Input
Amino acid sequence: MTTYGRAAEESAFVRTYAVTRGRTKPRHLLALETVLEAGQGRPGPAQAEECEEILALCRERRRSVVELAGRLGRPVTAVKILVSDLLDTDALVVPLTHPYADTGAGSGPSVQLLAAVTAGLKRKWPDAVAYSQAG
Output
């Protein structure tokens, strides 16, 4: 690696460290495919310039975390930290869609899905107390 290449790499690392204020983990659980859109809140005054770039991109249309990282040329973890900051101020939101809106399956999940979830929870926490809705 050339001296210039090493200096550029170190500079990018230092910039990422400064952008995230030394943090290495986001406060919110975000997957690569988590979709985000601009919200009603505003970023704090001390937030990185990348936050403004993220907001501008999300105002154009909904964007995934991985797409934002690619557009900004920043590591995904750094982008997740910035996105977490923006989620805390409601400047970004994770849009929720009704999961059964297009299925024509009625107003909720199927009995089979609920049974599978219940079985999985019982396997995970066999000693959990079951609460009855009757009574």
Summary: The CA atoms of residues 37 and 62 lie 5 Å apart.
